[in-house]
Every structure is written in C-alpha cells, then in structure tokens.
Amino acid sequence: MTEIQTDTGRKAGEPFLVAALYHFVSVPRFAELRAPLQALCEDNGVRGTLLLAHEGINGTIAGPADGIRTVLAFLRAQPEFAKLEHKESSAAEMPFLRMKVRLKKEIVTMGVEDIDPNRVVGTYVEAKDWNALISDPDTIVIDTRNDYETAIGIFRGAVDPQTKTFREFPDWVRNHTGLHNKPKIAMYCTGGIRCEKATAFMKEQGFDEVYHLKGGILKYLEEVPAEESLWEGACFVFDERVSVTHGLEEGEHTLCRACRHPLTAEEIRADTYEPGVSCPHCFASRSDEDRARFRQRQLQMDLARKRGERHLGK
C-alpha cells in the first residue's frame, strides 16, 4: 500500500514555517500525549517527527505558521513543557512527507543507562560567546554528530569522532584519553540535544569544565554574521531541505534516497549517482537487486510527482 498526500492549510506562495524543538524533562505520562498530539498536527496541516519519552520531547515539524503556533501552544500548555524552547526557519516547499509522533525509550539514543541531563549537564554557551570559547587554546572542541553530517560542515578546529551513530560516542570518549590533556571541553550538535546529553555523559566520566553550544549550530547560523563565523560548510538537517547555511538559508545539497547521505554537486555528477538508486557513498555496498528495487520506487515517486501528489512509499 502507498499513501498519497497533498499540501494543505497554507496560502499559495507562503513559505512553510519549520520549528525544531527539544526539552529534557521527566514526563511519566508521555504515552498519553501521543494520540492528541498526532491528531492536532494532522488537523493543522503540520508534518514532521516528534519523539516522546520519559526524558522529554524532541523533533522538528513544519507547516503553515498558524498550524505550528497551535501545536507549540498545545505543548506549552502541558506543565512539563511550559518552558519549551524552539528554533524557527522556513522552507519554500514542505520538507516532510508525513506526520509521526513516536514513543521512544530515549528522545536521543545514546544507549547508556542513567544519563540524565536534568540531574547533571554541562554549561550552556550562547551563540555570541561561542567563538571566544572555541578559540581558547585551552579548549578541545568536539562535534557530537555523525560522519555523514560532519562531512558537509564543521567548526574550524573541531575534533570529528567520525561516528556512524550516537551510540558509538561513549566508547569513542572512553578510548580517547587525550581528551584530558586540556581543561575545557566544548561540544556542539545540530540543535543542541545531542551535545546536551553528551555533556551529561562527559560530566559522569569525570570531566570538570564541559560546555555546549546553546541552540546548536542552527542557533549559531541564525545569530552569528557570516563574516564573523568560524563555521565552515553547511549544516545537515533531517528534512527535505538537506542542509542550511548562514541565516538558515537552504543549502545546495541533495539527499541520496538510497542511503540518506547528503551529496554535493560534484558527487551528483559521478557515474555512480542515479537519483533514488545509488550514489558514490553507497554504490559499492548495494546489490543489483537493491538497485532494481530502488529504481522501481523512484519510478513510482516520479509518477506521483507528475500528478501533483506525494508518494510516501511503503
């Protein structure tokens, strides 16, 4: 079965409002919020993904401005999320295919028991103060994102753990004793959630001076002028925009629909790139049968697009 959806709840030519949010807080009743939140989003033309767990909420949603405001107001009306903060950007086209509200064990999966940012966490650093911290020779700067994200952008001088998933990060820390060579650890991620949990882990590991970028790369790109920036490249985002740059403008990257890796213009010109089927990052790891299946899926998506519809797959 396939689903077909068309954009609703937005005036023609009006950009979509994108809201990225997360909040660590104890929510014993998190499962009760799933159904009403799912229904509210659908009724207001909002799409994206929201994760609910005992430790809080995390996600990104997009839709007409009034719809996003309605959903945020509903969340902040819940006592647990009264102090919820979010970051806004815009998209010319709807960056999500469907709305999903999911119940999870963790809102960001590290896989380490008893790491609670509500109990112990690093020190927040505002975007305007970040350059001074990471330029300090006594600071080690660590990117807590995964390798496909760091491949298209990173802060100048940052250490890239080259992890495939966030679950690998704790072992990377344990195996890199050199992290104790300098007194300060500065950590960052896309929107702030991963580095917040990572700082909690670092504190548990005995690191004293641990800092993290409040609001993540997105807040930095929004507030710090390009001419003052120490950010190099683009920031990967988990939606159809693929990447954003300074001022949260949409980037120029394309997503490989087979492996979900962001692609540059040069990689799109490679012989191994076929839209929806393969790219230089996944061609060698896929079989001919895989590519045939992906090719059929891409055909169905192309046909749906010609009809002015969205093909959401199986």
Characterization of the model:
- With 314 residues, the chain is an alpha/beta fold.
- Helices cover 27% and strands 23% of the residues.
- It has 9 helices and 17 strands.
- The strands form 6 sheets. A 5-stranded mixed beta sheet has the order 5-2-4-3-6, with helices on one face. A 4-stranded parallel beta sheet has the order 7-11-10-8. A two-stranded antiparallel sheet has the order 1-17.
- Helix 1 (34-43) packs antiparallel against helix 2 (65-76).
- The radius of gyration is 20 Å and the shape is globular.
- Mean pLDDT is 92; it is low at 1-7.
Record the SSE blueprint.
Elements: E1 4-5, E2 16-24, H1 34-43, E3 47-53, E4 56-63, H2 65-76, E5 85-91, E6 99-103, E7 123-125, H3 127-135, E8 139-143, H4 147-150, E9 153-155, H5 169-174, E10 184-188, H6 193-204, E11 209-213, H7 216-223, E12 231-233, E13 235-236, E14 243-244, E15 254-255, E16 262-263, H8 265-268, H9 288-306, E17 310-311
Parallel strand pairs: 3-6, 7-11, 8-10, 10-11
Antiparallel strand pairs: 1-17, 2-4, 2-5, 3-4, 9-12, 13-14, 15-16
Summarize, please.
With 314 residues, the chain is an alpha/beta fold. 27% of the residues lie in helices and 23% in strands. It has 9 helices and 17 strands.
State the major sheet. 5 strands, mixed
What is the N-to-C order of secondary-structure elements (H for helix, E for strand)? EEHEEHEEEHEHEHEHEHEEEEEHHE
Q: What's the overall average pLDDT, rounded?
A: 92
Apparent shape: globular
Which percent range fits the helix content?
A: 25-40%
> Count the helices. How many?
9
Write out the strand line-up for the largest beta sheet, numbering strands in chain order.
Answer: 5-2-4-3-6
Number of strands: 17
